[in-house]
Design a protein that fits this description.
Helices cover 34% and strands 16% of the residues. It has 538 residues and is α/β, with parallel strands linked by helices. A hairpin with a 4-residue loop joins β2 and β3. The longest helix has 25 residues. The N terminus is likely disordered.
Length: 538
């Protein structure tokens, strides 16, 4: 009896939460009465003026996916009365804690679908055509992160653009696929909730960004790592057509932008449900919706979470969509970092207090790369690197990021203009969660490290020297001009090459003492891409 009563209470709570999410709500108190006010389709928001411009934080772009709306496609944000405070970041979507600033505790909050808007205008937002817009999707492996990971206020002011940073559902709550959820999905393919959130944010931008001074017809989607994979997915998704005019992919081509097949996702979903004790196919979805977010989060470890191909939202793998001309035909800026893999190798070895030794190096390589182990050892001899960890990190980065990015350049260029770069500042400060540097580990131009040259990463200003500040200024110019008119340029610097005219050439971004920004036609050779390309197509 108590069990039945408990289930009934859960059902009523879920129903009440879903109904409440659709009704007009009173606005949060807006304490800053002199802040700028903008009216959106759901109601007015009051942000704040800063030395860089204006910012509006934590603005809802969809109904919160709680209760019966868990594992549902996003719905329109409910209207609110009065003026809503937009001076604080929204909740982070459900995720574990980490060493990154602001992530010291896990988040169990599903009320998280919000975005942050940064505009360079200190006066009333302009109307009419407006400024170009960049919509940013954060990284974090699709299981972590939030829009607040970057503070792009200086970027917005310097480039004359409006920047929107988006929260979207993560992990199991963003990407669970299961037969019962397939039956609820419009295209009978579940598991794309996080990507659907991103499209809902893009539709919010199209409907509302004019009030913030932006041009809804001049939107660029951008992201790093999992955010870059998100851009790949949005380029390939038919339902995203017309929502943007260009894309930026930073370190997002890993695994050739591959996502799960419907079959694989369904198998994983069934195993995930069983882990939570939801084994009856007839009641599995209700059982899963009855679990707390904490239970869901704790159960998601050990599973792969990514979009799902096979329905109308994403009919085919992104790489196939690019080569077959089934993706959005818009300009793309794509690249990776020279030493991507050092961060991951550090986490596997030195960061755990067990640096890889020369004696253990062959064993580690063969365990990591399997049948390719002997070839990897021949291409990456431990004696050619300062430490064994850097040796294996170089192989990881070349396989996962550098060569995948170059392959993506080729597949995109069959129908798109593709601008190509490689971030190569090996003197760059390590990003926040690896600071201070443990020992004397040389992170180089590792994964994530380019972000601090574009934005305040985790809201922090990086301790650049004069040369690094100049490189940062140049990168902001390249990215900003691409957002404004689809062609990356920087004053006094070489033009960023295109895969279309100079195949295989990238713009190597580095400080003046390291040779400055130069066009590099040997990236594929330097990263051993003949080995990794053959393995990828085997």
């Amino acid at each position: 009896m108590r069990l039945r009563t408990h289930r009934a209470a859960l059902g009523l709570a879920a129903l009440a939460a879903s109904v409440a999410a659709l009704l007009p709500m009173p606005a949060q108190a807006a304490p800053h009465g002199d802040g700028p006010v903008v009216r959106t389709a759901s109601g007015a928001v009051r942000g704040e003026s800063t030395p860089e411009g204006q910012q509006f934080l934590g603005v809802p772009y969809a109904a919160q996916p709680v209760g019966a709306l868990r594992w549902k496609a996003p719905r329109a944000a409910p209207e609110w009365r009065g003026v809503r405070d937009a001076t604080r970041f929204a909740n982070k979507c459900v995720q574990t804690s980490s060493g990154d600033p602001g992530y010291e505790k896990p988040s169990y909050t599903e009320d998280c679908l919000a975005l942050n808007v940064y505009t360079p205008k200190q006066n009333a937002p302009r109307h009419g055509k407006g400024l170009p817009v960049m919509v940013w999707f954060h990284g974090g492996g699709l299981t972590a992160g939030a829009g607040q990971d970057i503070v792009p206020d200086t970027f917005a002011r310097t480039t004359g653009t409006v920047v929107v940073a988006v929260n979207y559902r993560l992990g199991a709550l963003g990407f669970l696929s299961a037969p019962g959820l397939d039956a609820e999905a419009q295209d009978t393919t579940s598991g794309n909730f996080g990507m659907q959130d991103q499209q809902a944010a893009l539709r919010w931008v199209r409907a509302n960004i004019g009030g913030f001074g932006g041009d809804p017809s001049a939107v660029t989607v951008a992201g790093e790592s999992a955010g870059g994979l998100s851009v790949c997915t949005q380029l390939a998704s038919p339902s995203a057509r017309g929502l943007f005019r260009a894309g930026i992919i930073e370190s997002g081509a890993y695994n050739d932008c591959a996502v799960r097949t419907k079959k694989t996702a369904a198998e994983q979903g069934t195993a995930f449900a069983a882990k939570l004790g939801c084994t009856d196919a007839r009641t599995a979805v209700a059982c899963l919706r009855g679990k707390s977010s904490k239970e869901v989060l704790e159960a998601q470890d050990g599973f792969s979470w990514s979009p799902v191909a096979g329905g109308t939202f994403l009919p085919v793998q992104p790489a196939a969509a690019f080569t077959e001309g089934k993706a959005a035909r818009v300009p793309v800026l794509n690249g990776a970092n020279k030493d991507e893999g050092r961060l991951f190798a550090f986490g596997m070895f030195d960061g755990r207090g067990t640096p890889l030794t020369p004696e253990a190096y062959p064993v580690a390589v063969k365990a990591l790369f399997g049948p390719l182990g002997d070839k990897v050892l021949a291409r990456y001899p431990v004696t050619a690197y300062t430490t064994p960890t850097i040796a294996i990190g170089t192989a990881i980065g070349d396989q996962m990021f550098a060569c995948s990015a170059l392959r993506l350049d080729r597949s995109l260029a069959t129908h798109n203009t593709v601008y190509t770069y490689e971030f190569a500042d090996r003197t760059s400060p390590p990003f926040a969660s690896t600071s201070p540097r443990p020992g004397d580990f040389d992170f180089g131009a590792m994964h994530v490290n380019e972000l601090q040259y574009l934005f305040k990463h985790f809201g922090l200003t990086s301790p650049f020297n004069a040369e690094q500040r100049r490189l940062s200024d140049q990168m902001v110019q390249y990215w900003g001009s691409f957002v404004r008119d689809g062609a990356p340029r920087a004053a006094g610097q070489p033009a960023m090459p295109t895969q279309n005219r100079t195949p295989g050439t990238v713009l190597s971004l580095k400080t003046a003492s390291a040779g400055g920004n130069t066009r590099d036609g040997k990236a594929a050779t330097d990263h051993q891409c003949d080995l990794w390309d053959a393995a990828a197509t085997a």
